[in-house]
From TrEMBL:
Transmembrane segments: none annotated. It comes from the Bacteria. This is Acetoin utilization deacetylase AcuC. InterPro entries: HDACs, His_deacetylse_dom, His_deacetylse_dom_sf, Ureohydrolase_dom_sf. Residues 50-337 form the Histone deacetylase domain.
Length: 383
């Protein structure tokens, strides 16, 4: 019998639809034009469309509707409240984003932008994770996948960045801590880009362990070095695994086996949260993973959650900009969450990420060995 997988999605997230280059808009300055040309050197500004577009989600949803997976349960979700958002973001920043409701504009030179429906979409994306952990805490199921946009992991507490308005997974983790009373929350960010926002929000927090594997700097956003290991009470609770361009499925599995699993076994999280970007897919940017790699690692993550935290697991969509790669990868991941057997792993003859993972595991070995199993009794529950 299939395992229940809660799916959180709301069509209003399609209302976030920033336009491409529009010379008729005065706020789209030469600086923005230069940034687009820098980041997308092959783009033609006349036909340029913002890469973080609604079809990213409809591609995934269509694949799930076309061939339904046993065990999938579609859930309604509520937008995150200001109080919930302010657990991860500054109140002034939340007020700034809310003030943009109904408007269009660019928020950062890295082409982060809003359209009139973006603020509603952002509230819903952050609310998805809260709905998921509330349902899991209530015992409705153990596994959830949130099909959301705008993504979240580049947004720190005080600004929009990298297509991200609210940090959906950070809001979720903060809710787990402050509203549900979990003492130990573990995040693995496996998006191709470093989750700089998530790192910053929990950098001094020993109750939220963050592991982040990503394409190494100078790739966007240029952070995520091995040496960024946390600060203050959170020193040793931030583990980066920078990877070379071209890394494939064996690398992803090695990150799990050599860093994520040993860190989890030392930390003993009460819930696992996965920032799930599919932009490492070979059809997308500069890495070489595929849906067999994402499915296999999902199976491994499920086993780890079953071993350590009664199976409690939330996977949250982050990046991924190729519709076919998104649809195939999310489908394979959700099939694995539902307990289906996974396809044979496609492995590169010479995966370039192997040495980088071994280096990171060696670098972090002492910190992993010293990971205290959270600070029990320090949950600071608000209600
Ligand atoms: Zn990404």
């Amino acid at each position: 019998m299939a395992t229940t997988v809660l799916i959180y999605y709301d069509f209003r997230m399609l209302g976030h639809n920033p336009h491409g280059w529009d010379p008729g808009r005065p706020e789209w300055t030469d600086a923005v034009k230069a940034m687009i040309e820098l980041q997308y050197p092959n783009s033609n500004l006349d036909t340029y469309r913002h890469p973080e577009r609604p079809e990213r989600l409809t591609a995934i949803v269509d694949s799930l509707l076309l061939e339904p997976i046993d065990g999938v349960r579609w859930m309604l979700l509520a937008p995150a409240s200001a109080t919930q958002l302010e657990r991860a973001h500054d109140a002034a920043y939340v007020a700034h984003v809310e003030s943009l409701d109904g408007q269009s504009g660019w928020l950062a030179k890295d082409t982060t932008a809003v359209s009139p429906g973006s603020v509603t979409a952002a509230r819903l994306a952050a609310g998805a994770g809260i709905g998921a952990i509330e349902a899991i805490a209530a015992g409705e199921a153990r596994r959830a996948f949130c099909i959301v946009r705008p993504p979240g992991h580049h947004a720190p507490a005080d600004r929009a960045r990298g297509f991200c308005l609210y940090n959906n997974l950070a809001v979720t983790a903060a809710h787990a801590r402050k509203a549900l009373g979990y003492d130990r929350v573990m995040i693995w960010d496996l998006d191709m880009h470093h989750g700089n926002g998530t790192e910053a929000i929990f950098y001094d927090d020993p109750n939220v362990l963050v592991v982040d594997s990503h394409c190494a700097a100078p790739f966007y956003p240029g952070s995520g070095l091995l040496a960024e290991t946390g600060a203050g009470a959170g020193a040793g609770y931030n583990l980066n695994v920078p990877l070379p361009v071209g890394s494939g499925n064996a690398t992803l599995q090695a990150v799990f086996e050599q860093v994520v699993r040993p860190a989890a076994r030392a930390f003993r999280p009460e819930i696992l949260l996965i920032s799930t970007g599919f932009d490492c897919h070979y059809l997308d940017m500069v890495c070489a993973m595929d849906e067999t790699g994402y499915a296999a690692v999902t199976q491994s993550i499920c086993a780890l959650a079953d071993e350590l935290c009664d199976g409690r697991l939330v996977m949250m969509l982050e990046g991924g900009y190729n519709a076919k790669a998104l649809a195939d990868s999310a489908y394979a991941v959700i099939e694995a969450l539902a307990g289906n057997p996974v396809s044979a792993l496609n492995v590169l003859p010479d995966d370039p990420g192997a040495a980088a993972v071994a280096d990171a595991a060696t670098f972090h070995a002492k910190a992993i060995g010293a990971l205290a199993p959270g600070q029990a009794g320090d949950a600071n529950t608000e209600n």
